[in-house]
Structure formats: structure tokens, C-alpha cells
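Sample intake sheet
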Amino acid sequence: MKQNITLSIDKDLIVRAKILAARRRTSISKMLAEDLKMQVEQSERYETAKKKALFNLKKGLHLGGQQITGREELHDRKNLR
């Protein structure tokens, strides 16, 4: 469903935008709608990637190594004597 909105834009910018829209054989409305859609989608992709990255940081990644000895054994000073 589409809905109209009202924007306040400088008159000089409107004139320049009309020229650009004519060159692209489109309308200012369509240019603005496409640009706004692109920005919203980009923001959503960024947020999704950010959430995934933060999840991976909290979870950690297994890089294939093996734990030879435990932390307790490494720091057990009694075994050093």
C-alpha cells in the first residue's frame, strides 16, 4: 500500500532534482522512494550483520585446536616442586 507524504525542500533543490529526474526519465517521487528504500534496506542489513557478529563474539569460534591441558593444571603451583 502506498501513501503520500509532504516534504519541505528548498526550491532550488527541487528545480535541480526535476532536471535530474527528467534526465533519468523518472519522477522526483520515484527517485526519493527508491533512495529511501535503499537506505532502509541497507540499515536493516547492517543491523542483521551486527547482531550476528555480536552473537559470534559471545559464542566464540572453534578454530580446530585441541586443549592439551586444563587451566587448573597450568596454574597448579604444587606440581612445580
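Comment: The first helix runs from residue 11 to 23. The chain has a mean pLDDT of 90.
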